[in-house]
Design goal:
Length: 108
């Protein structure tokens, strides 16, 4: 089946072969789930994830012109690890914003 992180894969619709392969992988990992999965279950969706070239999240202040009146901060590109990394990155981002706004420090 298709690799979920293949950037060249532009297939906009889910494939039955992908569903079958994921069900086989799940049953192999957790055999007791085989009784809960129905072979006639259909449906699904395709989801695109944002990734950076090095697969690390992009977090922090965006370097801007010294004459820009405002700052832009980002917390993005989590790929498939958003649930795991987003909370920690939000803490890092909040700390960066507070430090920047209270001290005017530029730590880019």
């Amino acid at each position: 089946h298709r690799h979920p992180w293949d950037p060249s894969d532009k297939q906009p619709s889910p494939l039955e072969s992908d569903h079958a392969a994921m069900a086989r992988d799940l049953i192999t990992s957790v055999p007791s789930l085989s009784q809960l999965l129905h072979s006639d279950a259909t449906g699904g969706f395709v989801q695109y994830r944002t990734n950076s070239p090095d697969s690390l999240p992009i977090v922090g202040r965006v370097p801007m012109s010294p004459h820009s009146p405002a700052s832009l901060f980002v917390n993005a590109a989590f790929g498939s690890r958003g649930v795991l990394n987003s909370v920690l990155c939000a803490e890092v981002l909040a700390s960066s914003i507070l430090q920047y706004t209270t001290t005017g420090a530029n730590h880019d």
